[in-house]
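Worked example 2:
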Amino acid sequence: MKLETLAGMLIALTVFCVAIFTSIKNVSVIFDIHAALIVIGGTVAVALICFPLKRIVSLLKVFMRRMLGTNQRDYALIVDEISKLSDAYRRGPKFFEGVVNDLKDPFLKDAAGVLSWLEADVAPAQLRDLLETRVETHYKLYMNEVRVFRIMGKFPPAFGLMGTTMGMIALLQSLGSEESRSQIGPSMAIALVATLYGLVLTNFVFVPIAENLSEQTEEDMIARSIVVEGIMLIQEGHPTKFVVEKIKSYLLPNQRLALEGRAA
């Protein structure tokens, strides 16, 4: 698991629990079944209306794989494989095909196949346009998936306000009774629990997941751009050393230093 993700989760949970236990005398008021039913149940219901269940589950799996550190783009691996691919391309088709079959990065393996199209009447500019179209398509699809959680993040506060409104209606309806004065405080506290649930779900669950997936999409975009540039440089016949240095230009200085450290 990524240490920063785990640390963030623990800090968020700690801050929330400390705030609850230090500011509320009767902590049991937080656990209200009606508020949970309205906020959580309403959010799930509306989410299923807007998006297929399979899509939501698949996105959660993507987030979990990233949180566990199994779904990160390995820039060092991509650079190393492009380097091997460049050497093999200069040695001949047989060596090139053997390296392509052993590639671990799926997009690089797929993109390397387009080099065989050079035997046909296909201009390098057309090949670049094809690869860049694939990159852009993946980026749009992934950002659309990010949009799912950003939209879902709007639901809990709305249902929290709905629960609070219903609680206030019930409170005002009972003001005429003899015990209404003693019930105003506890009733308002319970009514506001729904709003709290909505804020917690949005800011501790949906927004972090959306931003995490967005960051993952940006990393994927960089990795695919490196692949496209590497393939085109190989096709143009540049030396392997130049190919590697050029694709490293897509990385920040600290990332390039990290790659050099791993290579050493």
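DSSP finds eleven helices and no strands in the chain. The mean pLDDT is 83.
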